[in-house]
């Protein structure tokens, strides 16, 4: 942000409900806002709510925070607050998201946007009744510069006739069978879609935005670790799906193609790997956060002194993503940069100033992911592919 824009940028007061892992991450990203060049908005974190008073202590680091509370209604009653970010357990989404919307505040919700499809539909209904509330859902991985390069490559038409595509989110956070159970490992709090609720938005944001809503889904789901130590060390049920691979049929430029999405909590060797690959007859592109500078593009070329060859070419992606920053263009980008970029996109879109740039997940896209997960679970149970009605396909926004 330049000195001139800093003076004219509109001040937006932000509050956080849920000061856990993600609440702190977002608070830190807002502190880095001056890294953005000429952003129309200047967010200021003014309020935080967590039912655990100890979680609020960390926010003493941030001197703009004037309200700390254990009751989010207090924060919603504050007329000075414009935007609320909510990062709580999935079973709490429907109530809290609805309350934020009904209070007339804008909302950046967290995935999976309600514990199930009914909860997501209830949030959509609240939005319909309160259209002044601008609502989007969090999904930051596509804001890696390499992911943006891959998206732009596909939008350019460079694939030609598509062959196949894959988007994966791979962890091994649950490899240790002695890791205690927590809310993300219990259907009651995480939802029946398990790992899909936890990681699925990461694998559907880009496909849905590219217009690749699936027409049918075949789900392969695994609950690998069925019990984990509870609070007193005794084993308790760990009933969520750990890994889910969805084989779908989607359409690109009218051509049906296999789209595979993978969400895994147990993929030995992976920590937080987001991978995207799309192959066509004319070109191909792939990117993985495992090597976050590298984007590979495929081509067939005449080699000087040789014949016609298939080539994967390597590009270093640099630091620039959706919104320009003061960071040198050749420097590296990381997870916290993607959070900043996601917020830059969210607040610019709220102002109507995002233009053609890549945006955060829309409520309709988020709700559609629940239909996809439900189809995947039914498919897994029946061992047959499940069609998704065309009515479920969102309008393509690119
Ligand atoms: N975008 C991402 O990359 C990403 C990563 C992790 C988690 N998430 C999502 O963020 C959300 C929260 O996950 P997390 O890992 O931050 O969880 P967490 O358990 O670390 O934090 C949740 C916090 O919410 C608080 N809380 C519970 N009930 C509350 C209430 N009624 N009012 C206020 N605070 C309350 C808890 O005390 C806790 O501090 C989930 O929806 C999860 O799927 C997103």
Structure description:
The protein has a nine-stranded mixed sheet. It folds into two domains: 135 residues, NAD(P)-binding Rossmann-like Domain (Rossmann fold, 3-Layer(aba) Sandwich), CATH 3.40.50.720; 251 residues, Dihydrodipicolinate Reductase, domain 2, CATH 3.30.360. The chain is globular and about 70 Å long. Strand 5, helix 6 and strand 6 form a beta-alpha-beta unit. By secondary structure, the protein is of the alpha/beta class. The protein is 29% helix and 27% strand. The relative contact order is 0.16. The two termini are 27 Å apart. The longest helix is centred in the last third of the chain and has 20 residues. The model has no long low-confidence stretch (mean pLDDT 95). The structure holds nicotinamide-adenine-dinucleotide. The site of nicotinamide-adenine-dinucleotide has 22 residues, from helix 2.
State the strand order across the main sheet: 16-15-14-13-7-12-11-8-17
What does the average pLDDT come to? Answer: 95
Structural class: alpha/beta
Strand content: 25-35%
- Give the terminus-to-terminus CA distance: 27 Å
Question: How would you classify the quaternary structure?
Answer: single chain
Q: What series of H and E elements makes up the topology?
A: HEHEHEHEHEHEHEHHEEEEEEEEEHHE
Under CATH, the topology of the largest domain is which? Dihydrodipicolinate Reductase, domain 2
Bound ligand species: nicotinamide-adenine-dinucleotide
Radius of gyration: 21 Å
What is the CATH level 1 assignment of the largest domain? Answer: Alpha Beta
Low-confidence stretches: none
Please, what is the CATH homologous superfamily of the largest domain?
Dihydrodipicolinate Reductase, domain 2
Please provide the count of β strands. 17
Number of domains: 2
User: Which sheet architecture does the biggest sheet show?
Assistant: 9 strands, mixed
CATH architecture verdict of the largest domain: 2-Layer Sandwich
How much helix, percentage-wise, in residues? 25-40%
Number of helices: 11
Query: Quick one: overall form?
Result: globular
């Amino acid at each position: 942000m330049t000195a001139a824009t800093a003076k004219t940028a509109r001040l937006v007061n932000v509050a956080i409900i849920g000061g856990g892992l993600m609440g702190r991450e977002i608070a830190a990203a807002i502190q880095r806002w001056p890294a953005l060049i000429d952003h129309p908005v200047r967010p200021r974190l003014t309020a935080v709510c967590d039912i655990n008073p100890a979680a609020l202590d960390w926010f003493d680091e941030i001197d703009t925070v004037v309200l700390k509370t254990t009751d989010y209604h207090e924060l919603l009653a504050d007329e000075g607050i414009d935007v609320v970010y909510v990062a709580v357990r999935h079973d709490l989404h429907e109530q809290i998201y609805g309350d934020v919307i009904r209070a007339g505040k804008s909302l950046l919700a967290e995935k999976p946007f309600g514990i199930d499809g009914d909860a997501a539909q209830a949030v959509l209904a609240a939005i319909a009744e309160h259209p002044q509330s601008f609502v989007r859902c969090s999904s930051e991985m596509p804001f890696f510069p390499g992911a943006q390069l891959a998206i732009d490559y596909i939008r350019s038409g460079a694939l030609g006739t598509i062959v196949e595509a894959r988007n994966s989110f791979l962890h091994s956070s649950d490899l240790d069978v002695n890791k205690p159970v927590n809310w993300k490992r219990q259907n009651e709090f995480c939802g029946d879609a398990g790992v899909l609720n936890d990681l699925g938005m990461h694998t559907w944001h880009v496909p849905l935005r590219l217009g690749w809503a699936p027409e049918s889904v075949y789900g392969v789901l695994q609950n690998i670790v069925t019990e984990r130590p509870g609070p007193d060390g005794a084993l308790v049920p760990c009933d969520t799906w750990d890994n889910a691979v969805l084989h779908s049929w989607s359409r690109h430029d009218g051509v049906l193609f296999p789209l595979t999405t993978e969400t895994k909590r147990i993929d030995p060797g992976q920590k937080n790997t987001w991978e995207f690959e799309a192959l066509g007859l004319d070109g191909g592109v792939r990117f993985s956060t495992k090597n976050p500078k590298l984007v590979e593009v495929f081509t067939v070329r005449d080699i000087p002194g040789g014949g016609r060859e298939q080539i994967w070419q390597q590009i270093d992606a640099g630091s620039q993503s959706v919104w320009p920053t003061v960071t040198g263009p050749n420097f590296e980008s990381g997870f916290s940069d993607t959070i900043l970029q996601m917020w830059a996109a969210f607040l610019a879109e709220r102002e109507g100033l995002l233009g053609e740039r890549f945006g955060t997940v829309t409520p309709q896209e988020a709700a559609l992911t629940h239909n996809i997960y439900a189809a995947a679970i039914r498919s897994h149970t029946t061992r047959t592919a499940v069609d998704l009605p065309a009515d479920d396909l969102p309008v393509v926004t690119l």
